[in-house]
Design a protein that fits this description.
- By secondary structure, the protein is mostly helical.
- Helix content is 50%, strand content 10%.
- It has six helices and three strands; from the N terminus they run αβββααααα.
- A hairpin with a 4-residue loop joins strand 1 and strand 2.
- It is flat, with a radius of gyration of 25 Å.
Length: 172
């Protein structure tokens, strides 16, 4: 980027970046205020969680004594999981405009010739199991093999024989 057009393009990129950072900061601030509550056991148990899904309040109705300890434990777990699911949905909804805006932007691979599409190579983060600690589901997950990245090469092998191609390279 050189000359007048280059300066205009740089200014536009900086303005867009500043605008996006402001929107991210505002969304982050709003996210910290999210809470969700859920009930279980016919409303006898209510659990409230914060934006991170951490329990911040648990309330029992006056007739909680009609339940066994096992039923109370199950109700607390169910209510907490449902509240966490709801606050997660709220967070996704809050951040969706930012994701939509990002999706409209060009990828690095579209801007830099020869750059692979790194986003398509990123592993998918699986949702955590809601199963109990020693349940069959969790034990089965321990036996599943880890993803295989057999075609990956180390940094030294990847850069072997290449000239200095970093940010200080004259080609930039």
């Amino acid at each position: 980027m050189t000359g007048q057009n280059g300066e205009v393009a740089k200014a536009a990129i900086l303005d867009e970046f500043t605008s996006q950072m402001r929107e991210i900061a505002e969304a982050s601030r709003k996210r910290t205020q999210l809470v969700a509550s859920a009930t279980a056991a016919a409303g006898r148990v209510q659990v409230t969680v914060n934006a991170d899904g951490v329990v911040i309040a648990t309330r029992f109705s006056s007739d909680i004594g009609e339940l066994t300890y096992e039923e109370i434990a199950k109700a607390v777990t169910t209510a907490a999981q449902n509240a966490a699911t709801e606050v997660s949905r709220q967070g996704r909804e809050l951040l969706q405009p930012l994701r939509d805006r990002r999706a409209r932007m060009p990828k690095l691979s579209e801007l830099i010739e020869g750059m692979p599409d790194l986003e398509s190579k990123a592993p998918v983060v699986e949702p955590a199991s809601l199963a109990a600690p020693k349940s069959r589901e969790r034990l089965a997950q321990l036996r599943e093999p880890a993803p295989d990245y057999g075609n990956a090469v180390g940094y030294e092998a990847w850069t072997e024989g290449q000239e200095n191609r970093g940010a200080t390279d004259s080609g930039w």
